[in-house]
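Writing this down once: the sequence line spells out the residues, with the fold written below as integer tokens. I am pasting one below:
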Amino acid sequence: MVPGPNNAGDSASVQVETHHEDMIHDAQLDFHGKRLATASSDRTVKVFDVTPNGQYALVDTLRGHDGPVWQIAWAHPKFGGILASASYDGKVFVWRESPAPSQPAQSAQGYGYQAGPYGHQAQAGLGSWSKIKEHTLHNASVNSISWAPHELGPILACASSDGKVSVLTFNNDGTWDASLFVAHLIGCNAVSWAPATMPGSLIQPQSAALAPQAQNGQAGPGGVSSVRRFASGGCDGFVKIWGWRDDTKTWAEEEVLEGHTDWVRDVAWAPNIGMPKSYLASAGQDKQVFIHIQDRPGAPWTRTQLDPSTAAGATSTIPGQFADVVWRVSWSIAGQVLAVSGGDGVVTLWKESLKGSWECVSDVKA
């Protein structure tokens, strides 16, 4: 089920008949909520158009993977109709939507895409989809993919069971750069980018930035410093934070966050518009969810554990543990609400109280 409008203006669940022939592993709406993509064990990705009356019409079925497709990710619309898919076959495909003949392509200003092999239209039309990149550097299942904040450009991070993370950077001239490094020795399950805006930049002068990563940032809109960072979660039970170093042109390990006693299944960095605090959520095979918090750049990370046993109608009676494995965590656009999805088919929504504790404010049962 996916979100959909209802007559009262509230959020509602809409059931979509995808016609996949096997289990669905991921479903993602694009930036504007006008397109839905689904990934399945049947080795395909399906793209649906959201009609004005809230219905979902199949646009295309993308084929080519040789194994289950675990995850999909939409690029920002400034880069055109671009979709990435990650599969058990160890490959990452990048797909582009070509505009319909009746809809001339618009160039995405500042990126030179009209001459390159990807994203040449600033607004997706109702054309056909084609594969424009096949990333094959990994030698095991690719479990997670994540596009960087659009301010940093078209950059895609990929996490694999081979223990490595790869970062694909798409250049103006149509070439592709790829960096590959070991992140978690026994496997990497998840990756999530930090906001591009330096924490605290909204309320303090740039000269007061304390974080070491600020030295490796770049000027963003309005002169606000931006930063390249992402988090990864692995089979070693650790969450690691990686930052780009301009001096060595490499990704360096900045932090190792502990707490989980089993595989980290997902990580999610909360959106931030420049406020001092950073929030990073992690979900584990150990049925636990942690919120890792950094009060200001350069400060040590602390963690707090969600306690589903205190929620109304709780299905778990063990403090700090959900009823089943927690597979996904996802933040709202404003970064104030965290959605937690477990193997028991229940999605719970969590919010931080004025006292700093985290409370379950709602739940949705599949």
